[in-house]
Amino acid sequence: MKVTSWKTVAVLAAIASVALGIGIGAPPSQAAEMARETARVEMTLTAGGQSSLPLTDRDLTRQEKVNLGTVLTAYRTTEARSLDAPAFVDTFAPGGVFNDVVAGNSYRGAALGDVPKYMISIFPDVHRELKKITVNGDVISVELAVQGTFNGSMATPAGTLKGNGAKVDAPMADFWYLHNGKIVKFDCYVGYTALYQQMGVQLDWASAVGAN
């Protein structure tokens, strides 16, 4: 299965910051320059960069390209090698929410930036491998895997779990909902069972059965 290059992601993510600046109080000359830069980036996306992405449909509207750029920026800024928590927060609209659906947690405002930092504290080399991207207007769905090495530590109800060098490659599904190129809702589904097993944590079925 073809996956995207993170060098490509870093380049293409520029479309969000460039395009979103147009018409938001910018002087006419600056707006014109932004428009030219947007056209240039869109041409690059269409001519070459887009072919490097695992898109299910490559015939995207201009707004869909802007939305895609925002989502790619969100991914790039949560990578261990390019962590930028403030930039990640900035991809969200005011009041935007990140829902860790499986764990039942939600984050807003400045707390959005704590999520990627927490992941890196567990997996210092964390990486998200994008496998399939579907863009449908203001909704972007992504099939991916979270990868990394468990060299950090994680707080648990039983105490602190220390890293053991285990490699993880766990399935995820992300659903991004945008408005005017900003994220209003991000629903993240993590395959925690697979993730914990790869970290060396086994579900305690015996205790659950004994409690019946």
What key phrases describe this protein's structure?
212 residues, alpha+beta, Nuclear Transport Factor 2, Chain: A, two-stranded antiparallel sheet, 8 helices, 8 strands
Strand order of the largest sheet: 2-1-8-7-4-3
What is the CATH class designation?
Alpha Beta
Largest sheet: 6 strands, mixed
Summed up, the domain count is 1
* Number of continuous helical runs: 8
**Portion in helices:** 25-40%
Spans where pLDDT lies below 50 across 5 or more residues: 6-26, 33-48
Order of helices and strands: HHHHHEEHEEEEEEHH
Descriptive account of the structure:
With 212 residues, this protein is α+β, with helices and mostly antiparallel strands. The protein has one domain: Nuclear Transport Factor 2, Chain: A. The protein contains eight helices and eight strands. The protein has helices spanning 6-12, 14-19, 28-47, 62-76, 85-90, 114-122, 192-198, 205-210, and strands spanning 92-100, 105-108, 127-136, 139-150, 153-156, 159-162, 166-179, 182-190. It has a six-stranded mixed β-sheet with strand order 2-1-8-7-4-3. A two-stranded antiparallel ribbon has the order 5-6. Strand 1 (92-100) and strand 2 (105-108) form a beta hairpin. Residues 6-26 and 33-48 have low confidence and may be disordered.
